[in-house]
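Session log. Operator J.P. requested a structure for one protein chain; no other inputs attached. Running the standard single-chain path with token output.
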Amino acid sequence: MRLALFVLMCFAGAAAEDVPRVIYSKSFAGSLPPYVHIALAADGVAVYNETQDPDNDEKVRVEAGRVRQIFELADRLEHFRTPLESGLKVANMGQKTFRWEQGAEQHEAVFNYSASEDARTLTGHFESIVDSTRLLIEFRRVIKYDRLGANSAINRAAVLWDNKRLTVTPEFLPLLDQVAKNEAYLHMARQKASELADAIRAAGN
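Structure written below.
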């Protein structure tokens, strides 16, 4: 029985290691945040961190549509086997790294600016995860400690949504529902929360 359990655990561990991940990191002194690291697995679970301390990991779930787009871009970029740096003399935009991990297969490309449209689009997806996750953390805080601040957080989420940049929406939905159904929040906040939640559900991605 113990042997069977051990074999099952080993199999599960090996299967988890084979799940592909696209990893994005950026170091840019003076920006906000100055460092970020996101590891996105093919199942949609992302580990977000603004430090190099794993104790500060924030796990979020990215909607399936954006996950699909990210992995399609990684495929087109050959899992970062080839350089992405343009070599052009441009301003410092921060050192960015894309990394592909799937079992023993690991590749990465480091760049400041890339001429590849696919690389720039992929960067945009991850920057959307950065902006959305930072807002999510703030939204959780205001719901708990500053109910009047909920309206501002929802407005910012709506702007991201309108610009097709709001992601980690599975994490936002229960918070929006919580505001929409609680009369302790301002009427305008409840209404906007309900409208945004409806829009996210209608998109169904």
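Operator note: Residues 117-145 form the longest helix (29 residues).
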